[in-house]
Structures are given as C-alpha cells and as structure tokens.
Fold this sequence. Notes:
Blueprint: H1 3-14, E1 24-27, E2 34-37, E3 41-43, E4 49-51, E5 66-72, E6 85-91, E7 97-104, E8 116-117, E9 124-131, E10 134-141, E11 147-150, E12 156-157, E13 163-166, H2 169-175, E14 198-203, E15 209-214, H3 215-219, E16 231-238, E17 244-252, E18 261-269, E19 276-282, E20 284-291, E21 294-301, E22 305-312, E23 318-320, E24 333-334, E25 340-344, E26 352-359, E27 365-372, E28 388-389, E29 395-400, E30 408-413, H4 415-418
Antiparallel strand pairs: 1-2, 2-27, 3-30, 4-5, 5-6, 6-7, 8-9, 9-10, 10-11, 12-13, 13-14, 14-15, 16-17, 17-18, 18-19, 20-21, 21-22, 22-23, 24-25, 25-26, 26-27, 28-29, 29-30
Amino acid sequence: MNFTTAILARTLLVALSFWALAPAQAQIPGTGEKIKSIVPIRAITSGKAHWFGYYDKEQFDSTDRYVLAAEVEFEDRSPNEDDVIILGMVDTQDGDKWIPLSESNAWGWQQGCMLQWVPGSDSKIIYNTREGDKHVAVVMDVFTREKKTLPRPIYTLSPDGKHALSVNFARIQDTRPGYGYKGGVDPVADQLAPEGDGIWSMDLETGESKLLFSYADIAAIPQEATPQGKHWFNHILYNTDGSRFIFLHRAHNVEGQGGKWTTRMFTAGANGGDLNIVADHGMVSHFVWRDPSHILAWSREPGTGDAYYLYTDKSDKVEIVGEDVFTRDGHCTYSPDRKWMLTDTYPNKDNLHFVYLYNLEDKRFIELAQIYRPKPGDNEWRCDLHPGWSHDGKTVAIDAMYLDGKRQIHLIDVSEYTMGK
C-alpha cells in the first residue's frame, strides 16, 4: 500500500457521514487495527463509546430510520451498581444525529439493559433499570418522552408487543456475571433451586405478572448430567408468532459460583405449559427461531459434536446447517424474509471477527467482513459484534472497536445480496 492509498483508506474510515463507495481494505496507521469488507460499512456513532448488545432485540425502529444504542464513559471493567449508561437513538436520515433519551443503572456489557423497540409501535421503546434494590422495566415514547414503569424487568417481548417474560437478574449476576445486573437483591440467593421464583409472564399494559414455572420445577426434570450447584434461567426468546418460547436451563456442576455449568434447551407454551426438552447434551449456546416450530442453535449433539443445528420443536428431528462452512460459535439470525442466515464469530488467533451470510436455498456462503479486535476480549467486557437486521433486510448493525479503539455502532449494507441484485 503506497502513501496515497493509505491516506485515502484512512479518510474513508473516519468519514462517518456517508457509506464507503467501494469494497474496502484499510489499516489505521500506527495501530495495526484492520477491517476488510466486500460491502459498504460505516460507523454511525463516535466520540464516547456506544453499543447495543444482543442480536435478538429490535434495534431499528419500524421505519429503519432510528437505531437504538447506549452510551458509556468506560469500557475496561465490570459495571457497578452506581454506573449509569445513557440510552439514545441515532437518526440515520439527519447526519447520524445522536439523540439522548433516558438512562439506566441496571445493565451488563453483553445484553445492555435489554433496550429495544416495542413490537408493533412506531414510537415506544422498553428497557430495564433499577429503583432502589429492585430491577424494573420502563416503557418510553421516544417523541413525547412519556414513561411508564413496570414492576419487573424484561428479558424478551412477545411479537405483538403485549407481553414480556421476566427473570431474576440478580440471580443471573451471581451465576453468570455480566449477563445479570448489580444492585439488586435475590431473595432466594441461598437456595440452589427455589420454588417461589423462576420465569414470569408480565402484561406490558397492566404490569400484572404470574409465575409460569419455578427453578425447582425445571430442576426436578431428570437430565443427563446431574448438577450439584445453583440453577438459573438464561437466554429466553419468544418464537415468531408468540405461541411458544425457548429458554436455557443452566446449573453449576459444583456447588458455588464459578463452577462449570451444564445447559439444557427447553421450549414451552406461552402460558408455561407443554414443556419440551429440545437439547440435553450439556452445551447449547446462541440460538434463534426460524419460524414457530424450528430453532437454529449452536449446540452439541452426540456423534457430530458442536455445530449449527436446526431443531424441530416437539420432535426428534435434527439437521446440521452449513456443516462444511460453519466451524465456530457465533450470534445467528435470519433475514426478515427467512432466505438468509447471518452470523458472526468470536475472534480467531489473529484477533479477527468474521461476519457471514449464508443463503438457505442455494447454500451460498459469503464472507462479508473481517473486523479486527484491538483489545483483549476474553472477559466480561469484551465487544462482540452481535449483528442484527433492519426490518427491510437491507442493513445489518454491529458493535465494533476497530475504528478508534472504542466500541461504536456500525451499519453494513447487505442489499447487494438480500435484494437479489
């Protein structure tokens, strides 16, 4: 790369107000930070660190104009109960203007505070925060700034935006630090599998809630490996029509925090009934619903090991997806039209994340980008890409640190592929 080319590459990277005009390979001088992309990619935030978090939440509003994000003052430690993040949105039709909206003191690096748009609404968002030692959720209209507080924090929203599922985030913080919140009190912290707590359903209009089933209920269901430590629920997600939901049941193999855990993947009806064990071989990681009855998950199956598997709910049918191309765990989703699978990877030995598209009909495998990770990431405050879709299927949002060493929101233009050009 000659001097002129290097200057041009740097200019393209720091110009945040427009899409890159051609496939780019760039290196920020003096740092070794790199990005290589076959499609246009640009940052829409700058200055302080910004990120969104998990890949299975609605980050784009219904028009795909406003993109949600959180703003933070530090990046190199766990949050404590006094740390507050600013919640806001980026107006992609007004020079990527940052619009502060609210704040939260109940959050973690991987999933933020569950900030997301309420399905079916053109103006309402929801997020978790804390009042005293109690975790709660807040519904807010981003234009009127009107707020309503709900008595429980949310984990996932039904597709119609009328209900949420809730868990004890203080317990998650104890069992899996970084995925729960500090500052809350777990009233059953001394119990390995308590009866009075578990997964709750909450009405988003009234705030009324009911316990669907407890930790004790699920722990009592026999499993391949019998754990001796604390039980908890993690990674809950409604299916595409809201009739069922998925959750991971985890428990430490040894008594006390920090022991290696076992994982089972369950589904249940929206009312908590009709429980089904989808996978019970010790390891299930990231997953997503393809439709009301099929689940894509990075998991482990006897004889074939770790891979992306497509499970049919309430059935023994299991098939490997992309066996020859997907070799590592990532954050997987489907395009809105369900024709494409999107996933990223954790960094390899060269500290490179990868972003992939996979066409489910013709099996085309496309490496969209390689993105350098400039800081160690094997800790709670690592910056995973967590790619997520816009509603029109033309754009993917990621969190990445390659540009200025701070996590920022980036948009990747994938319309060349998803729009059939």
